Amino acid sequence: MKVFVIGGNGRVGSLLVDKLAAQYQVVAGSRSPKPEKNLDNIEHSHIDLLSDIDTIAKSMKDVDVVYFVSGSRGKNLLQIDLHGAIKSMQAAEKVGVKRYIMLSSIFALQPERWKESFLSDLTDYNIAKHYADLYLTTQTQLDYTILQPGALKEEQGTEKIETNVTNPGSNSIANVVDTLVAILENHSTIGKVILMHDGDTPIAEALHQIK
Question: Catalytic one among 125, 131, 135, 144?
Fold first, then answer.
């Protein structure tokens, strides 16, 4: 299986590429690919989300799965986090990729929750993620999974999470990455929007409990 990671040099993406490479052939896609590790099963590829759909689609040739973990860190929300994400979905469908896994944000599809906790400072980001998630779930035929974690923390992972989420909690980046990998291995996550924060349930078990 060949997996394409859009945002492969980011905080989440670089760790995700390394984790996936233990099992799959991985393409780490970014606007400025920087091969930090010369592993046989990691390929570094240029992808610019400001490009047109056809150009983005060329980057996805011969891949089986697309992960979207890219983000502008608030610098270009409309063109990267929103329109760039949608163009990547359209490109995936154009080349016949079915499996698409999106890293989103807690309560992105629930605007009534955006005034809670740290989310109140991220309204423009929440709007971008809202419409990207909405497009993925309603306007594509992709076998999608959307993972919506809370605040990302650079802390040691515990491999334990909570998916029965009622409040926007925090997540170690390592736990988010491990959950993204586990989603690919669990076909029951297809068509699901999964909210998460760090918790007490082993990741595989937490995913199996999702209805």
Answer: 125
